[in-house]
Amino acid sequence: MKHWFSDGAFRTIIRNSAYLGSGNVASALLGLLALSCAGKGMSPEMFGVLVVIQSYTKAISDFIKFQTWQFVVQFGTPALAGQNIQRFRDVIAFSFGLDIASGAVAVLGGMLLLPLLSHALGLDAKSFWLAMLYCTLIPSMTSSTPTGILRAVDRFDLIAIQQAVKPFLLAVGSVIAYFGNLGFAGFVIAWYASNLIGGTLFWWFAARELRRRNIHNALRPSLFAAARQIGGAWNFVWTTNLAHTIWAARNSCSTVLVGIILGPAAAGLFKIAMTFFDATGTPAKLLEKSFYPEIMRLDPRTKRPWLLGLRSAMLAGGIGILVALVVVVVGKPLISIVFGYKYLEAYDLIQVMLSAIVVSMLGFPQESLLFMAGKQRAFLVAQTAASASYVVLLIVLSHAFGVLGAAFAYFGGQCLDVLLSLIPTLWAYRHRCLLQFSAPIESNK
């Protein structure tokens, strides 16, 4: 481990992860407070409806949106390293244009689909119109250009601040709705306002950082003109978009599918278990967010980025084991205190999903390594196979064993995801000498 920390890139990953971790710790605690207020302030059925509404809008945005932050990191980071400011402007302009276009399509699609799915989602007339209001948040959910900009310019501290502000507002609004007895409508409005303000803050941080670096006129949306200046732009964004859409079917839609198959109350239990899963998997997410920009500065033909990925995976896996042990000890009493005894069944789901935490943390570097190697299509194939298998498992096991079966399906899906992504990752490593390295190109500013 001492030798690992002699690597400057590894130290940078840890440092940036620490920045993000400071925000995520606050985010996790405040998120639990918000869920606690919502769970205690409403019946399990209405809490489940609120969760379904939020999950529905997030699922729509995940299906439609492009992973523009990955595009900014993939093409913008080398441009900045080579002081090619004009190319960096083109990257941001193209990314911004995609955010606007996908956001418009997503909000229209979400509103048009909602009347068709409202009965299956368990929404009555009042809940339906509140869900329609929530759909107007979808454009802010589809935008990831700001976080890509902040990652490319190494401002993970600002990302940490934004990640703490949004759940803080969510927690404050939920506390007000709980103690003010504002009911279901009060919680929907509080969650809506916190998401809207949090999303706007990201754009403000990104714009301010660009001005500070004298990178002007970058936030001007452009699709076709900017894409012509960036070789492989459309290929990359469509491939990553499809991969993320498939990921959304496996993750964001899980709660919605559980709600459709087993009802809103089961969806609420599954959401609580997923909240614990997301919280315990935070270290891997933090490492991934700082890992990807860092390896884009390295030559994939050398062993260095691959060894960096292996070290990061081992570190994340070790942390995952420790976190899982902590959850086994404190999970049950924590659910009782935070959500109440009526939600204790969620602990059984968490126990099943704990092993998936370690598996997913061990496999976190694979996506970034495949993108670095230009093998995003191989990652797409792996995601497709793993996610299709997971959806089948979720439907079959939920019907057979109820909400506990959904937890087993999630564990199986995580294992398939890591194993199927490992195959192209090992192939890319063994044939790394054939990979291309886009060295930073100097240009006139």
Task: Set out the fold topology.
Blueprint: H1 8-41, H2 44-64, H3 68-81, H4 85-117, H5 125-135, H6 138-142, H7 145-152, H8 156-179, H9 183-212, H10 224-228, H11 233-250, H12 252-262, H13 264-280, H14 282-295, H15 304-338, H16 345-362, H17 365-372, H18 376-401, H19 403-430
Helix pairs in contact: 1-8, 1-14, 1-15, 2-4, 2-5, 2-11, 2-12, 2-13, 3-4, 3-7, 4-5, 5-9, 7-9, 8-9, 11-18, 12-13, 12-18, 13-16, 14-15, 14-17, 15-16, 16-19, 17-19, 18-19
What is the count of helical runs? 19
Distance between the termini: 41 Å
Radius of gyration: 21 Å
Largest sheet: none
Q: Tell me the structural class.
A: mainly alpha
- How many β strands by DSSP? 0
List low-pLDDT spans. Answer: 439-445
The share of residues in extended strands comes to under 5%
Number of domains: 1
Average predicted local confidence, pLDDT: 79
What global shape is seen? globular
Q: Give the % helix.
A: over 70%
Instruction: Encode the helix/strand succession as letters.
Output: HHHHHHHHHHHHHHHHHHH
Characterization of the model:
By secondary structure, the protein is an all-alpha fold. It has one domain. Helices cover 81% and strands 0% of the residues. The chain has helices spanning 8-41, 44-64, 68-81, 85-117, 125-135, 138-142, 145-152, 156-179, 183-212, 224-228, 233-250, 252-262, 264-280, 282-295, 304-338, 345-362, 365-372, 376-401, 403-430. The radius of gyration is 21 Å and the shape is globular.
